């Protein structure tokens, strides 16, 4: 049995598909933990990626959203008290635009942009007539060690390209039973509908039949060339909330206002209590058009990216990081309030801790 004290990297998934993909990218699997606290309710998979001991967990089946993710992270931190860095890896809805050529199977990584820490909680804020959406809370950015690794990996990919698709293929060669669900679908199935084209409610027929598949319905995009990264990696803001984004008009509005690249449902519950990097494989376009065919592959490439990222981080650097459970305890004991003088707002901050939520005045 494995000693929970030996694990320094925590990896959280939201659904079974992501959990399967994460396990396939372990270099070796370990026996289950020798013991867990009495309150522990998570399912754990233990293993190694390069020289990092990694613990992976998943949300309970049927549960989604920020609160469930926060509970899983809290359980993980107390069951494996030596965790120093965290990853949230899985699938999400992409936000393609003229500025960002995001396609199915691409990857979005949460990196600070435009005054945001990398994740925007878009159901926690206020909308004022004639103005853009104003978030009333701030979520922390990923830890420095992870952001540095992202920068190093971006430079590596720019110089040498990546082998993420090949990494997925190697796994599927070893595990042919996974091919049906996790291999890359036909690129012809990657169709981006214009925002005004809405899939009829309650209609389960394919989009090509119910919505059309001619140029008047679809956004024309040139094929990627052999010199383009495919899948491509995008760095920026991920929008998170306790609701599934399936509305192209709201998607495009938030993208225009906040430069959002991806929508998902768990990360906002983690950033201030489980400092982590969020990695999302794109499985749909956050609109009304259903496309579950890409979920398996999107989960696979996100996990492949996470593995490449961990290989950029020297294990001794991780050991020098503070234990996340101690950071949270420190934050709880060093909270201070700073009152602002504009709009009668106030800010809650933390000395030497990750919790930093700001609240605007009404």
Overall description:
With 362 residues, the protein is of the alpha/beta class. The protein folds into 2 domains: 4-321, 3-Layer(aba) Sandwich (Rossmann fold), CATH 3.40.50.1580; 327-362, no CATH class. Helices cover 28% and strands 21% of the residues. The chain has 10 helices and 15 strands. The strands form 3 sheets. A 5-stranded mixed barrel has the order 5-11-10-6-12, surrounded by 4 helices. It has a 3-stranded antiparallel beta sheet with strand order 13-14-15. It has a two-stranded antiparallel ribbon with strand order 8-9. Strand 14 and strand 15 (358-359) form a beta hairpin. Helix 1 (16-24) packs across helix 8 (295-310) and helix 4 packs across helix 8 (295-310). Mean pLDDT is 86; it is low at 126-131 and 333-362.
The dominant shape is globular
As for the number of domains, it is 2
SS content category: alpha/beta
> Could you estimate the helical fraction of the residues in percent?
25-40%
Order of helices and strands: EHEEEHEEEEEHHHHEHEEHHHEEE
Rg from alpha-carbon coordinates:
20 Å
User: What is the name of the CATH superfamily of the largest domain?
Assistant: Nucleoside phosphorylase domain
- Portion in beta strands: 15-25%
Strand order within the widest beta sheet:
5-11-10-6-12
* Distinct helical segment count: 10
Would you tell me which CATH topology of the largest domain applies? Rossmann fold
Q: What is the CATH class of the largest domain?
A: Alpha Beta
How many runs of DSSP E, i.e. beta strands? 15
| Biggest sheet details | 5 strands, mixed, barrel
CATH architectural grouping of the largest domain: 3-Layer(aba) Sandwich
Unreliable stretches: 126-131, 333-362
Mean pLDDT: 86
First-to-last CA distance: 54 Å
């Amino acid at each position: 049995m494995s000693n929970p004290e030996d694990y320094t990297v925590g990896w959280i998934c939201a659904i079974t598909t992501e959990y399967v993909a994460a396990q396939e990218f372990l270099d070796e699997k370990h026996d289950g933990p020798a013991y867990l606290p009495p309150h522990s309710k998570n399912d754990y998979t233990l293993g190694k990626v390069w020289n990092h001991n990694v613990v992976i967990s998943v949300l309970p089946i049927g549960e989604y959203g920020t609160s469930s993710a926060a509970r899983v992270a809290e359980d993980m931190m107390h069951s494996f008290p030596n965790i120093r860095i965290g990853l949230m890896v899985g699938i999400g809805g992409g936000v393609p635009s003229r500025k960002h050529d995001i396609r199915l199977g691409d990857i979005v990584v949460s990196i600070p942009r435009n005054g945001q820490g990398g994740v925007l909680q878009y159901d926690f804020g206020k909308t004022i007539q004639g103005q853009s959406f104003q978030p009333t809370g701030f979520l922390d950015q990923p830890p420095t060690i992870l952001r540095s690794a992202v920068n190093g990996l971006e430079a590596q990919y720019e110089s040498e390209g990546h082998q993420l698709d090949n990494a997925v293929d190697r796994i599927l060669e070893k595990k042919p039973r996974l091919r049906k669900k996790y291999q890359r679908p036909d690129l012809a199935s990657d169709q981006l509908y214009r925002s005004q084209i809405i899939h009829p409610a309650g209609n389960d027929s394919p989009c090509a039949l119910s919505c059309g598949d001619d140029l008047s319905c679809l956004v024309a995009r040139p094929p990627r060339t052999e010199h383009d990264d495919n899948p491509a990696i995008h760095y920026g803001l991920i929008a998170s909330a306790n609701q599934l984004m399936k509305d192209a008009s709201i998607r495009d509005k938030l993208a225009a206002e906040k430069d959002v690249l991806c929508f998902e449902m768990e990360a906002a519950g983690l950033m201030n209590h489980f400092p982590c990097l969020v990695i999302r494989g794109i499985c749909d376009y956050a609109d009304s058009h259903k496309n579950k065919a890409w979920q398996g592959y999107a989960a696979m490439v996100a996990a492949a990216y996470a593995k490449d990222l961990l290989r950029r981080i020297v294990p001794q650097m991780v050991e020098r990081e503070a234990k996340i459970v101690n950071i949270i305890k420190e934050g709880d004991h060093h909270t201070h309030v700073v009152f602002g003088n504009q709009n009668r707002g106030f800010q809650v901050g933390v000395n030497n801790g990750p919790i930093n939520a700001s609240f605007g005045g009404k």
